[in-house]
Design brief:
alpha/beta, anti-sigma factor antagonist activity, Transcription Regulator spoIIAA, about 40% helix, STAS domain-containing protein, 5-stranded mixed sheet, single chain
């Protein structure tokens, strides 16, 4: 699993993931999000188009990161979710918790 983070405005960062979002990669995701928030990048767009599989630990990490972002006065929005992510969100009923967008650039377009 690989993650990249790209700052696109003073407080917005796009985090892109590729591979499997599971218990191991969830730790890396939490660390990347924590680092972004500590730099003041509290509005996060998660581009999940490259995720080929997600398990319960991965979904739990997304919820944890969302909570952390909101506590810092921001938000975490999902962009371009892969079919695996859409299925995981649906099965876990988390589709009601996350805002989902067609593109990472559009997640914070106002």
């Amino acid at each position: 699993m690989t993650f990249t983070a790209e700052k696109v405005s003073p407080d917005i960062v796009i985090v892109r993931g590729a591979g499997t979002l599971d218990m191991v990669s969830a730790l890396e995701l939490r660390a990347i999000i924590a680092a972004a928030i500590s730099r003041g990048d509290c509005r996060i767009a998660m581009d999940l188009s490259g995720i080929d599989d997600v398990d319960w630990s991965g979904l739990g990490a997304l919820v944890s990161c969302l909570t952390r972002a909101r506590r810092a006065g921001g938000d975490l929005r999902i962009a371009e979710p892969s079919d695996a992510v859409v299925l995981g969100l649906h099965r876990s009923k988390l589709e009601r918790v996350f805002e989902v967008f067609d593109s990472a650039d559009g997640a914070y377009r106002e």
